Amino acid sequence: MPRPSWDAYFISITEMVANRSTCLRRHVGAVLVKEKRILATGYNGAPAGLSHCEEVGCLREGSSVPSGMRHELCRGLHAEQNAIIQGAFYGIPIGGSTLYCTNKPCVICSKMLINAGIENIFYKEGYDDPLADEMLAEAGIHIVRFVL
To answer: Whole-structure pTM over 0.90, yes or no?
Structure first.
């Protein structure tokens, strides 16, 4: 087996991180990297110390909320949000880093990533979010769909 590129290496780590997710709909993992070093990771799920969706059920399912819509109707944080929060909680500067994620960031996460100073985004899968795409492009963030 050939040695993976750095991008393939970090994308594959996002899949392992996603295994920690407690979301009933989608498991997402995120890794923030700078100079080939992992700064923080995140997966989607309820805030620390609160009941997880796998324990109490999915608010979005019960309300028939379509994927990609009404993000506020959820107990969980997105993987990208949790990675940013981990950096802040532990005092790790993440400006200038690259986000690797199993899924393309939504518009809410995109706005947070812009303000956090993320420079590049590599993702595996995603749904169309034209506003997120427009804002990331305007901010000059390089975004690439990475296929293993």
So the answer is: yes
pLDDT 10s digits, 20-53: 998 888 899 999 999 999 999 999 998 889 888 7
For the chain, strand residue ranges (E) read: 29-34, 37-43, 98-103, 120-125, 142-145
- Contact by Cβ (8 Å): 123, 109: no
CA torsion sign for 88, 103, 31, 25 is positive
Residues with Cβ < 8 Å from 93, sequence gap 6 or more? 87
Residue 116 in tokens: 């956090």
* Sequence-ordered list of residues with C-beta below 8 angstroms from that of 106, at least 6 positions apart, any chain: 68, 71, 78, 129, 132
Residue type at 25 in one-letter notation: R
Q: What positions carry a catalytic annotation? A: 80
- pLDDT of 114-141, one tens digit each? 999 999 999 999 888 999 999 999 999 9
Query: By the 8 A CB rule, do 44 and 14 touch?
Result: no
Q: Report yes or no: 124 and 11 within 8 Å, Cβ to Cβ.
A: yes
Helix (H, G, I), strand (E, B) or coil at 85: helix
